[in-house]
Amino acid sequence: MLGNRVDRRTKAGVGAAVAGMLLIASTYGMARFGVGLFAPHLTTQRPDLAGVLGWAAAAQFTSYSLAAVLAARFVDRRPRAGLVLAGATAAVGCMGVAVASTPGAFVVAVFIGGMGGGFASPALVPVIDAVISPHATATAQSVVNSGTAVGVIGAGIVASTAASIGLAWVFMALLCAGTAVAAWYPVRARAGLAASRRRTPGPSSEPAWAPWRFLVVPGIAAVIAGAGSSLIWTFGPLLITDSGSVTSERVGWLWIALGLGGILGTLTGTLVQHTGTPGGWCFCAGVLSLAAAGVAVTVAAGSAWTAYTSMALFGAGYMGLSGVLILWARHVWPSNAGAGTSVLFIALATGQALGSAGFGLGQDVLSPVFLSALAASLSAAGGLTALLRKPRSSGREFTA
C-alpha cells in the first residue's frame, strides 16, 4: 500500500515537472523570446515593424516585470491562478502578434504576451515544491526552468517551417493555452497546495522585511547580466544574418542550437550543489560572456560555425543563469520562494528591458562588434557582482 502511494506521488511529481516545463517552453521560449527569434522574418514580411523591434522587446521585458510584481503578491497562496493567467496572457499576446500590422498594435501585443512568463515561473515554484519529494525539488526546478530551451527549439522549428508569420504565432498561441491547461489540470483540486513544506519561519529576532535584504546582491547581479543577455535575445539573429555568417533562411537553426545548448540547464541543481549559488552564478555568467564574445568574432569573421557555437553557449549559460536565480531565491527565502523568484526575475527582466532599448539605440552609431563586446563585458560584470557578499539564508539552509 505504501509502495503504491509512493509510486502515485512519483508519477504525479514527474507529470507536474513535465507539464511545468512545457508551460515555460510556450510562455518563455515562444511567446516571450519569439520576437527576437522571428526578427529577420518580421522585418521581411512586415517592414513597418523593423523600427520598433528594440522598443517592443523593452515593452515585453517591462510587462514581464509587471506580471512578476503581481505574481509575487499571490502565487505562494494561489499558484493555480498564476498558471491560468500565464496561459491566458501569453495566448492573447501571440494572437495579437499574428494579426498586428502596425507598430502600435505590434508593441501592445508583445506587451501582453510578455506577461505570460512573469506569471508562469513564480507560480510553478510553489507547485513543484508541493508535489515533488524534498530531495528532488532542486532537480525538478531545473528541469522546469529548462523549458525555455525546449520552447526555443520548438520556435526555431516553427520559424523554419511556417508558411507565414501569422500562422506561426497562431500556432504558438494554441500551445500557450494548451500547456497552461496541462499544468493546471493535475493540481486543480489538490488540497493544501499553497502550504509549502518550505514555509519555515526565519529567526524570531529578524523583522518581517529582513529576507528582502538577502535578495539585494543577486538582484543587482541579475540586472547587469540581464542587460548583457538582451543583445542576443533581441538582436542576435539580425546581427548574425546581416553579417552574412548565416543566411536568413537558416536563422531557425541558430535558435535550435541555442535551445540544444540550453538543455544543459537541467544540470543547474548539480552545479549549485557543488559550487554554491554565487559560484554557480559566476560560472553561468562567464559562459554568457563567452557567447557574446563569440558573436563578435562571428560578425567580424563571417564564420557560421562560431555563430552556432556561440548560440549554443548562450543557451547553456542563460538557462543555467535563470535556474540559479530560482535556487537562490529558495535558498535565502524558503518561506516565500515564489515571491523571491519573482523579485529576482524582475531584476533580470529590468536589465533586459534597459539593454534592449540601449542596444536598439546603439545600433545606429556603434558597430556590431563593439555592441557584442559590450554585451560580453556586462555579462562578466554581472557574474562578478555576485561575489560582493555571500548570502545567508533567512530560514533553513538550501540543499540540492
Describe what this molecule looks like in 3D.
- The protein has 400 residues and is an all-alpha fold.
- 77% of the residues lie in helices and 0% in strands.
- It contains 16 helices and no strands.
- The radius of gyration is 20 Å and the shape is globular.
Summarize the structure.
The chain has 400 residues and is mainly α. The protein has helices at 2-32, 34-37, 39-45, 53-74, 79-99, 103-131, 137-145, 147-161, 165-184, 210-213, 216-242, 251-262, 268-301, 304-332, 337-362, 368-385.
Descriptive terms for the model:
400 residues, 77% helix, disordered C terminus
Based on CA atoms alone, the radius of gyration comes out at 20 Å
- What summary fits the major beta sheet? none
The CATH class designation is Mainly Alpha
Proportion of residues in extended strands: under 5%
> What is the tally of helical segments?
16
**Mean of pLDDT:** 82
Number of strands: 0
Q: Superfamily at the CATH H level?
A: MFS general substrate transporter like domains
Helix content: over 70%
Shape: globular
Low-pLDDT segments: 195-209, 391-400
Q: Which CATH architecture is right?
A: Up-down Bundle
What fold name goes in the CATH topology slot?
Growth Hormone, Chain: A
- Domain count, please report it: 1
Structural class: mainly alpha
Order of helices and strands: HHHHHHHHHHHHHHHH
CA-to-CA gap between the ends?
29 Å
